């Protein structure tokens, strides 16, 4: 029997790249996204015995529960992997972004992950060696100017990941995340504005690079898995250095 994965934000970017990577490895997938028409088109020639598409607003707990219940009912009530990938971003000065947009970022990026974990818990608990992978970011290491609420949302995801990793280990559920720096995806490429940090660091990753990191998590999970050698080294340095050094580095990059 193939392993099962439920992926949010699966119609584009990292979610789609991960779905393709797992599908190629024989997994059975639930691909969930608010854009169901895109999902249907993208999976038109896939084996529909192994792929089920679900309309999903991750902020809607009832919708999340319904999709997971339906999918797991087809697979003995079990779920090997929940990949909480859905997320949004707005680059710009904090005061120039509307309160409604800040709220939307927190709702999707944070409550979407919480809703997914809550809805999936009984099915993960029923599955030996189950795994949750949350989509975090390099911006969870220090608040990034121009991405203030996005950074805040990823700090929340990082904290939730750490807490659930400890809470759920007694159920044999591993909870982890992936932490890439800037990735060339529609979410980033369609931004109307940029940020000094983005201009200085550049974009050197694509969705497939992050998908490979997610696959590595399914093989050998680390609570926080960095993506890219450069950021991995910076992350390790940040763990050993005083917070003031990280702050100085971010300030320099923001000039």
CATH architecture: 3-Layer(aba) Sandwich
Using only C-alpha atoms, the radius of gyration works out to: 18 Å
Record field, number of beta strands: 9
If helices are DSSP runs of H or I spanning 4 or more residues, what is the number of helices?
A: 10
Number of individual domains: 1
Report the biggest beta sheet as strand number plus sense, adding barrel if it closes.
7 strands, parallel
Query: Can you say what the CATH homologous superfamily is?
Result: NAD(P)-binding Rossmann-like Domain
Strand arrangement within the widest β-sheet reads 3-2-1-4-5-6-9
CATH topology: Rossmann fold
Strand percentage, roughly? 15-25%
- Dominant shape: globular
C-alpha end-to-end distance: 53 Å
| Helical proportion, percent range | 40-55%
Mean pLDDT: 92
| Class from helix and strand fractions | alpha/beta
N to C succession of SSEs = EHEHEHEHEHEEHHEHEHH
Low-confidence stretches: none
- Just give the CATH class: Alpha Beta
Please describe what this structure looks like.
With 255 residues, this protein is of the alpha/beta class. The chain has one domain: Rossmann fold, CATH 3.40.50. The protein is 49% helix and 16% strand. It contains ten helices and nine strands. It has helices at 13-24, 36-42, 61-73, 99-125, 148-167, 186-189, 196-201, 207-219, 229-240, 243-253, and strands spanning 4-8, 28-33, 51-55, 81-84, 130-135, 173-179, 183-184, 205-206, 224-226. The strands form two sheets. A seven-stranded parallel β-sheet has the order 3-2-1-4-5-6-9, sandwiched between helices. Helix 1 links the parallel strand 1 and strand 2.
């Amino acid at each position: 029997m193939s392993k099962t994965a439920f992926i949010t934000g699966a119609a584009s970017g990292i979610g789609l790249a991960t779905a393709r990577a797992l599908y190629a490895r024989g997994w059975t997938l639930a691909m969930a996204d608010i854009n169901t028409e895109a999902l249907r088109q993208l999976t038109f020639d896939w084996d529909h015995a192994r792929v089920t598409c679900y309309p999903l607003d991750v902020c809607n707990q009832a919708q999340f529960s319904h999709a997971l219940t339906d999918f797991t009912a087809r697979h003995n009530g079990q779920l090997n992997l929940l990949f909480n990938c859905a997320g949004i971003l707005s680059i710009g000065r904090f005061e120039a972004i509307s309160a409604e947009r800040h709220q939307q970022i927190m709702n999707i990026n944070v409550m979407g992950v919480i809703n997914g974990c809550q809805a999936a818990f009984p099915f993960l608990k029923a599955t030996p060696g189950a795994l949750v992978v949350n989509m975090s970011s390099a911006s969870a290491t220090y608040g990034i100017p121009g991405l203030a609420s996005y950074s805040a949302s990823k700090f929340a995801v990082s904290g939730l990941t750490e807490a659930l990793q400890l809470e759920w280990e007694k159920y044999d559920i591993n909870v982890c995340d992936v932490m890439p720096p800037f990735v060339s995806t529609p979410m980033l490429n369609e931004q109307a504005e940029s940020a000094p940090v983005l201009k200085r660091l550049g974009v050197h990753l694509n969705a497939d690079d992050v998908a490979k990191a997610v696959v590595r998590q399914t093989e050998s999970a680390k609570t926080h898995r960095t993506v890219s050698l450069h950021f991995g080294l910076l992350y390790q340095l940040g763990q050993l250095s005083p917070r003031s050094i990280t702050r100085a580095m971010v300030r320099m990059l923001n000039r």
